[in-house]
Specification:
The complex is a heterodimer of chains A (109) and B (112). With 109 residues, chain A is mainly beta. Chain A is 0% helix and 56% strand. In chain A, a hairpin with a 2-residue loop joins strand 9 and strand 10. Chain B is 0% helix and 50% strand. In chain B, the strands form 2 sheets. In chain B, strands 2, 4, 5, 6, 9, 10 and 11 form a 7-stranded mixed beta sheet that branches. The relative contact order of chain B is 0.33. The chains are: A mainly beta (109), B mainly beta (112).
């Protein structure tokens, strides 16, 4: 059974701090990894994807991938209350994505 | 279209009735996915289309659920004889390649 594991949270972070979200995956064949943000009552929206080991930065967001450890993370710098949402991690497996259950992030003003 | 379009956005139906949910993917996207998400839960994979073919129907919960895709574009998810446990948001997503997927706003189904 191919799986993606995430801590369900909630993860509470003060406004302005760095939020760190983590994810592990079981399929060593996975090549692409994705972070989606889902606000309550809304559909998931793509934040970032990463294919290569190391870091990938996009504005306040940094995705990190370590294929040897089968570990993906998302860092959010200068966290804002509008970042409060559930963050879904996904890994590709053949033709589809395997999804984590999501981590609920709460940014406290 | 510019994004994945789903209809209806909200549907309230009586137990035992059939419902049809429609998805119009992003133009040119060959892959189409249906997911279900119950309140406070994660994404449940239902079915995947590549073109008009459905290589993987393994996620369909029962034989009351069926889906088709015509012309490599619009897809319809049909739920027959709806039950209360079918109440959820049904999310459609599409992608050009089988990885980076984009979701529609969902069809919220309530069975009463």
């Amino acid at each position: 059974q191919k799986e993606v594991e995430q801590n369900s949270g909630p993860l509470s972070v003060p406004e302005g701090a760095i939020a760190s979200l983590n994810c592990t995956y079981s399929d060593r064949g996975s090549q692409s990894f994705f972070w989606y943000r889902q606000y309550s009552g809304k559909s998931p929206e793509l934040i970032m994807f990463i294919y290569s080991n190391g870091d990938k930065e996009d504005g306040r967001f940094t995705a990190q991938l370590n294929k040897a450890s089968q570990y993906v993370s998302l860092l959010i710098r200068d966290s804002q209350p509008s970042d409060s949402a559930t963050y879904l991690c996904a890994a590709d497996s053949n033709y589809q994505l395997i999804w984590g259950a999501g981590t609920k992030l709460i940014i406290k003003p | 279209g510019a994004g994945v379009s789903q209809s209806p956005s909200n549907k309230v139906t009586e137990k035992g009735k059939d419902v049809e949910l429609r998805c119009d993917p992003i133009s040119g996207h060959t892959a189409l996915y249906w997911y279900r998400q119950s309140l406070g839960q994660g994404l449940e994979f239902l079915i995947y289309f590549q073109g008009n073919s459905a290589p993987d129907k393994s996620g369909l919960p029962s034989d009351r659920f069926s889906a088709e895709r015509t012309g490599g574009s619009v897809s319809t998810l049909t739920i027959q004889r709806t039950q209360q446990e079918d109440s959820a948001v049904y999310l459609c997503a599409s992608s050009l390649a089988p990885n980076t997927i984009y979701f529609g706003e969902g069809s919220w189904l309530t069975v009463v």
